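Human: Cast an eye over this sequence-structure pair and say how the chain folds.
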Amino acid sequence: MSENYIKIGKAVVRGDVLSWKGNEYKLNDIRHLYFGWVQYKRKYVGMSDDQAWNNGAKMKLELELKNNEKITLKAGTFFSHTAKKFEDFYKGYSYISEKTIVNRLNGYIEEVNRDGYFTYAKARFFIDGKIEMKGLFRNISMDIKNSVISRTASDVVIKPKLKGDEPVFTTIMTKLGLKTYLIPTSCDRDVFFYLLKKFYDVYWE
């Protein structure tokens, strides 16, 4: 990477301007930032799943602008011997993330000030700790203070905290993971973690 510009996929970022397909976009116009990657296994005939090699990955970054236009940048498929491509793409994402976090955060804070909650991954996070989500058959309501919250590489995991006096059916359902809810964190992951810490004192080192 040059000190004067950052290349990310087929786009180039210079300062606060992103150039892509002949057009220029201001980073301040980015409303949401989606980032995700998938790991691939290289497998040949005769190999078992355990023998397959975890040495491939594919990355994608999507920028959603204030005018609802979306820009999708991809790193393509590559393997461990081209790891620098992976590294450069991630550095580009990190640069854009850092440059736009305040602007993206403001959208969530405005919603909090207006409605008393912020919306993330189709769930409503109320400042008093209540979480509302849409289930398959009914709406789900939880209290973040009475929940166990953890995270994986791609999700925040929320499940009820067992106190010991729950009905047997509830205890069984919880222990089987049937009352476990996943919040995907591909969108504005940095902002979401900031909000969890700010409003609920939930964070990970």
Q: What stands out?
A: Confidence is low (pLDDT under 50) at residues 171-178. The helical segments are 83-115, 168-175, 189-200. DSSP finds three helices and 14 strands in the chain.
